[in-house]
Amino acid sequence: MKSFEAFPECDLKHVRCVFTDIDDTLTDDGCLTARAYTSMEDLEKSGVLVVPITGRPAGWCDLIARLWPVSGVVGENGAFYFRYDRSDKKMERFYADSEIGRSIKREKLRTLSQTILSQVPGAEVSADQFSRETDLAIDFAEDVPRLPEEKINRIVEIFESDGATAKVSSIHVNGWFGNYDKLTMTRLFAERCLGADLDSQKEEFIFVGDSPNDAPMFDYFPNSIGVANLRDLADRLTTLPTYITQLRGGGGFAEVARALIESHRSLG
Prior knowledge:
Layout: E1 2-3, H1 9-12, E2 17-20, E3 27-28, E4 31-32, H2 34-45, E5 49-52, H3 58-67, E6 73-75, E7 80-85, E8 90-95, H4 99-119, E9 124-125, E10 136-139, H5 149-161, E11 165-168, E12 172-176, H6 182-194, H7 198-201, E13 205-209, H8 215-220, E14 224-226, E15 243-244, H9 249-265
Parallel strand pairs: 1-15, 2-5, 2-13, 13-14, 14-15
Antiparallel strand pairs: 3-4, 6-7, 7-8, 9-10, 10-12, 11-12
């Protein structure tokens, strides 16, 4: 990984949208600080769009789309995107699965959660599960003492043995039934909401993240960036980002935002 300081300024000037993870990318120790939030707001004011791409639940994503200075949000690891039109006061919700399909899969995940909790002591269903529509989040580090790697791996094994997809974030193992992921829904969002073909316009987008479930995004975007705490989980990533920031979490995101804003200011 190259230092983010090596990101060519001429390439920064072409960026029109930042896709970003939330947990431990925008946040520090579980908190969204003023520094990170202001960075999103400043990017929006400078003409650079911000779109969170997260494993967080539908209930949170509705709030994010409505209240944050963002152009939309992809949630539950690619199960949907939400976009709020502030002028018309209307929320657009687009899902990978039908309502009936989501309901059937929720029942299967409910049964699977009982299996995981019985076989992996110390694991808990995530506190935000009540807000989820499509996946099961097993907490291994957010509201419980961090579990050892062998227990995290065991959670993944149980998901996969039942035919579910399992992705490890910095705090949860998220499992779901379906072939979607963060990248597939991000591409749909770009096409449907931004009028962009990512395959031919990758240089106009960057992705900022920190954890194993961001690997498809790191692999797809040549201008991918990890915040410094990614090094803590680097051995779990199949693909590393091209660049890495000096600072961790929200500070690393702010580092990227400053560089983008300065490059766009020089165009003015």
